[in-house]
Fold this sequence. Notes:
Low-confidence stretches: none
Organism: Liquidambar formosana (Formosan gum)
Protein name: Aldo/keto reductase
Number of domains: 1
Strand content: 5-15%
Largest sheet: 3 strands, parallel
Strand order of the largest sheet: 1-2-3
Structural class: alpha/beta
Number of strands: 3
Amino acid sequence: xxxxxxxxxxxxxxxxxxxxxxxxxxxxxxxxxxxxxxxxxxxxxxxxxxxxxxxxxxxxxxxxxxxxxxxxxxxxxxxxxxxxxxxxxxxxxxxxxxxxxxx
Length: 103
């Protein structure tokens, strides 16, 4: 019997809510993989400071549209006097997702 499932989850993907609903209805605990969007939501990268390799192509297309979300996340972290990345993970956990990070 399946008791948990890991999916790629990032706050900027709307499909994740549907995945959560399906897993909840089946009694499956959802574990989010890469909840910070492969690094896009970490605040480390900008359209002018991209990662190396294939992710640079993806990030170049997506990062400009994420700026309103990134700005809001920075504001929340600053207002609460918390680390930006910690605040992002807190948001993921508050929505009922469990996460793990890769190296």
